[in-house]
Amino acid sequence: MQPTLDEDKMKRHLGVLIAVFAASAVQAFAQGYPNKPVHAVITFVPGTSTDIVGRVVMQKLSEYWGQPVIAENRAGAGGAIGSGLVAKAAPDGYTLLIDSSAHAVSPAMYAKLPYDTLKDFIDISPLAAQPNVLVVSSSSGIKTVADFIAEAKAKSGQMNVGSAGIGSGTHLNIEKFKLATGTDVVHIPYKGTPEVITDIFGGRITAYFAPISAVLSSIRDGKLRAIAVSSAKRNSSLPEVPAISESVPGFEFTLWFGLWAPAGTPSQVVNKISTDVRRALGSQDVKERLARLGNDTMIMTPQEFGAFVRREVADYARIIKAAGIKPQ
Known about the structure:
The chain is α/β, with parallel strands linked by helices.
């Protein structure tokens, strides 16, 4: 039996009412967000740059919201373990992901991830970025980027440069520098920054593209010489140290940190979180706390951050392929 015109009209009206009711419910939910504790999963261990930056910003959000923001470190697999947990969480804004640029590295570094980096998350906001700083022993004859390039070419395939591990930001910084300068240095992977610094002091390696927050004290104490920072411009923590781009035009490599939610989180909630993060990053106390560790705040809308993440995914894939790094 075919429905009558009146029945069709009633169904259309019912559909409109359901849509309006659903939109109103989402709007009301967003306006009341958050009305309970929010969980923030941090993909690296306590004390890392990702952990420190994330906690600084989350503490400020907790003040704004009048609700606890509970930070939980779930480290492992270059950030993939924590990311996998958030990808499967309820998309209600009460489980968030704090990760670093490792989020954009993982698709090219791992043959199989328990999530889709670009489909299973909503990009909310970047938090901050810090450069690596090219350091050598204070007794080294290398004093400039030009010196470093000249020695690398004179000792092609012989100069040892350390990293904090295969596929780490410090490793990819080496590979990007090699591509940009046509140099061939020997990559020596370690388990972490302290081991690399020990071997610089011992003369077993020549240089390290170190996270700036990890070596600031050694640079200021005169134990390490800072040659250049990897950001596009000089860093306020080391204003006298040039950027690599001053010698290698266009070169830039930064370690950045961001905030994501599971796919399907209501746009009104995402926009509220993004707005409050931008407010936090603009506050004087947060800016000062992050700057003391060599960080510059990053201000973007969710749409701008999403475009940025996709560019980073493509750039890291290019570097990893050119370097011949095999997915794990």
